[in-house]
Amino acid sequence: MSAKKLAAVTNELITSYGNTAKNVIQAYRVGNARITGFVDQRWASAVDKMSKQLSSEIRSNALAAEQKVSAYYTKSISLGTNGADMAVSKVVALAGKGVTQVAANANRFEKATGVKALNTLAAAAVPAAVAVSGVASKIEAKSDQLVTRIAG
Q1: How far apart are CA 90 and CA 16, in angstroms?
Q2: Quick one: how far is CA 132 from the chain centroid?
Q3: Which residues contact 79 (CB under 8 A, 6 or more apart)?
Q4: Over the range 7-42, which residues count as b (16 or more CB within 10 Å of their CB) and which as e?
Q5: Is pLDDT of 1 > 80?
Q6: Ranges of each domain in the chain
Q7: Cα distance between residue 54 and residue 106, in whole Å
Q8: Could you report the per-residue pLDDT of 120-145, keeping only the tens digit for each?
């Protein structure tokens, strides 16, 4: 029974770490979007300031070129962060399945051998796992606040 409790706490911890990783990925995504917007504005402002010295064709080409670079950059950030998000989801899912399987195997081993050492060890580890899970939850909440702050 304790092994299942430990497995549940461990799965919560894994999920919390996964959410924190996704928050960091989202912060990266949002931060890059803000930077791209800033660069777009600054470029347009610089081109406007130089408008008297540039022909309309050069001005429009400069703006169009910057927009293309900006679009490629945005697409690369999107592809990278979407891939990272999917990888985190997959790792969390596989780790959760692994923990569940280990707990099931530990229970089967104890039933087959009559040795309760794993159950005792799991019971002893639960308080530490709960404490670590609490810390991880706080880190997750702070990472969520970071995303909100970066988003402005």
Answers
A1: 14
A2: 19
A3: none
A4: bbbbbbbbbbbbbbbbbebbbbbbebeeebeeebee
A5: no
A6: 2-151
A7: 75
A8: 888 888 889 999 999 999 999 999 99
